[in-house]
Amino acid sequence: MVRMEAVTRHYRVGGQVIKALDGVNFEIPAGQFTAIVGPSGSGKSTLLNMLGCLDRPDSGRYYLEDQDVSAFDDERASDFRNRRIGFVFQSFHLLPRLNVLENVLLPRRFLRGPDDGLEARALQLLERMGLSRHLAHRPNQLSGGQMQRVAIARALLMQPALLLADEPTGNLDSRSAADVLALIEEVHAAGQTVVLVTHDTDVAARAQRQLGIRDGSLEFDTAH
Ligand code: ADP
Ligand code: MG
To answer: CA of 66: how far to CAs of 46, 79, 83, 140, 159, in Å?
Structure first.
């Protein structure tokens, strides 16, 4: 499903070059639940953004579903991202003026082509997330755990190839964090490929595989 080949991403800040990713190679088969772990500043978010086609390698190749997405131009990358990638962030990234149902349906606004019953799917996902009675609520009327469940429903709306989560439990109390993690496991059990970034070793231990990253390089891979 995913193949990274010698991927680098360097930032130039002032006169200095920061090697956020420095020659990263790995593959992820469909259906796997992978955790990316490593200390702060090691390149985890850069890698997740790369996986999500939010960023492109400076060199190397990234293949997703057998397409060289590293060669896509911006327009193609954003269309591909909207259809094939679901994102969940630590800070939820819900739009405050939209209600729960509208937030989940957000990817529909960027869709070119037919809608394929997305509203019915949104309602179904929200039921699965235990939020059927909150459709008309605004994000500020929800708890953190509820907001993250809305974000997960939104991420799954388009039936993405990849569900990507950057510290999804980082802003939650321990009970909501456990709920959200259980939900992600449930989604994975139903066949979803999941990549989650975390610095929490308990969270990482729930994944099938851990990729350890340090100073922009893979330090370990529990699959090898
Ligand atoms: P992590 O998510 O593991 O904390 P990041 O991927 O955010 O790490 O960052 C990796 C390195 O790249 C860090 O040294 C960070 O300061 C640097 N970096 C990340 N994004 C940028 C950027 N937009 N401009 C310059 N440096 C960046
Ligand atoms: Mg980060």
So the answer is: 21, 16, 15, 40, 18
